[in-house]
Amino acid sequence: MTRNRTFASVLITAAALLGVGVAPASAQPSATATSCYGGAKTLTYHYSTSPVSYGTYTTSSRCNDINMRLLTDSPAGVFLYACVVFVDHTSKCNNDDTYSLHGTEWATVATDVKDGTHFVLRVGPYDTDAQNVTFQIAY
After folding, report:
1. How far is CA 62 from CA 27, 69, 78, 93, 98, in A?
2. Of 77, 89, 74, nearest to 132 (Cα)?
3. Confidence (pTM)
4. pLDDT, tens digit, for every residue of 50-72?
5. CA triplet 90, 92, 93: central angle to 5 degrees?
């Protein structure tokens, strides 16, 4: 009898431990963000008076958007302008050929981009402090 109770106790403990590492789907909103940003590419922008193009890249199912953040914040307040060019369709930036400002927080450069879309990221300086700026893109 003691042997059966011990075995049952071991089974219950094992089942409980297996359940501890698995959260319900509703409690996993960061799982998508982690996999998206986990595949980020790190690049370095070197100051130029005209925009610099990076790519051609191809979007994947890892991210729904094209995202960017700066890793360099020295001197404090360094920012870059960025836009996306969907090269199979145009030579102009998205959003009516406009650039968005980006800092050290993840921000979207283009939203709701279909998987398999080819794009180039164009980057320009906010001011002359943006000499050598390391940044990441996730797509």
Report:
1. 19, 17, 28, 23, 25
2. 74
3. 0.70
4. 999 999 999 989 899 999 999 98
5. 115
